[in-house]
Amino acid sequence: MSPRNKIAAAAIIIIRNKKKREEKRSVWVRKWVLQREEKGLFTNLLKELQKEDDKSYKNFLRMSHEDYECLLKKVEPLVKRKDTHLRRAISASERLTLTLRFLATGDSYHSLSYLFRIPVTTIARIIPEVCGVIFKVMKADYLQTPTSEEEWYAIAKDFEEIWNFPNCIGALDGKHVVMKAPKNSGSLYFNYKGTFSIVLMALVDAKYKFFYVDAGCNGRISDGGVYANCSLSAAMENNTLNIPNPRPLPNESEPAPFVMVADDAFAMQSYLLKPFPYKNQPGFNRVFNYRLSRARRVVENAFGLISAKFRVLRKPIELPPEKVKSIVLAICALHNFLLSKPSSANLYAPLGTFDSEIAGSHIHGSWRNEGHPDATLYSLKTTYMNKNHTKTAKNIREQFQNYFVSQHGEIPWQYKNI
């Protein structure tokens, strides 16, 4: 090709590329998006529900209008954007409503785009940002790990009065949050179930609230290693949380430490009790396992409720790990927020939501009607390989075991439930 022809060919390519750029810019904002303020879901349906159908409004956002306004007041300063001379900014109310609807349903960004008349690319920025803000502004008031002896005593008192397990300072568990395989991640997030996930580790009090959460650990890591690598493990080992010194169990004289309760996915420690493994255990061991599982029920119920209410958790989340982490932490904060006062709790978790007992008979909570959380939030893998518990840890478990079958520590119905 002659130099003249090369120049001509290059000129043609430049012209074509220019035309393509002009074609792409021919529509800055689609007409149906521009009608968001007049015809958008937020403008019409939600306001109608607020006035005419309070029950549907609460179902739509998983909270009352009062709670919504309280939440909006907290997040608005950090999510509000200024209008420009070209167009009005998407309001803080619309951003929060969009995010809450995504968490409640797990609808795709494209579906939400048509409902809210907001472009997909804009939604992709808004939702992770608002989730991050929700966690940031709520964690200090609604998701704070205790740091004083008085706070730990209060948690232990609730476990003793509600679940008959003295000196208990929390129920510990973890779940794999399933997501779409991250790009170029190889097997880093590939878990034992054959899916991709990050892990949510949580400590729950006697009233189903999270008071410690850690999210983001890749699903490939061994499930025992998840706890070993989280900040709670280091804090407990180094005693930086001001856990009270051991005190006697009720009507006993020998001091017993304050402990967390967990299942077989964890290694037993002097501050962490787990059940006796395998079936066909002696009667006293089965009593201990029943009493421990009874106290552990709070964390199972907490995970079950967030899975039932925030259905984004019920299918693989098609976002990168850091954004999945923001979503999970926001949900934990919202869960605590909605349990924080009676009016909100009665809506979010009405009577019968959680598991209960009547005359010692176990009654399943209504959240189980939505399906077990393990269908979407996988439990940590149970392992019986770690048998090398310290002698101290074994002695502490035996101390609680003896107490639960003593005159002062037994409960009347425990023997028919083992």
Could you characterize the architecture of this molecule?
- The protein is 49% helix and 11% strand.
- With 418 residues, it is α+β, with helices and mostly antiparallel strands.
- The chain folds into 2 domains: 30-141, no CATH class; 143-405, no CATH class.
- A hairpin with a 5-residue loop joins strand 2 (196-204) and strand 3.
- The model has no long low-confidence stretch (mean pLDDT 87).
Low-confidence stretches: none
The count of domains is 2
List the secondary-structure elements in sequence, H or E.
HHHHHHHHHHEEEHHEEEEHHHEEEH
* Strand residue percentage: 5-15%
What is the oligomer described by this structure? single chain
Cα-atom Rg, whole angstroms?
26 Å
Query: How does the helix and strand content classify structurally?
Result: alpha+beta
Q: Give the N-terminus to C-terminus distance in angstroms.
A: 89 Å
Largest sheet: 6 strands, mixed
Q: How much is the average pLDDT?
A: 87
Short description:
The protein folds into two domains: 30-141, no CATH class; 143-405, no CATH class.
Task: List the main descriptive attributes of the protein structure presented here.
49% helix; hydrolase activity; hydrolase; 2 domains; 16 helices; HARBI1-like; 6-stranded mixed sheet; alpha+beta; HARBI1_dom; 418 residues; two-stranded antiparallel ribbon; nucleus; globular
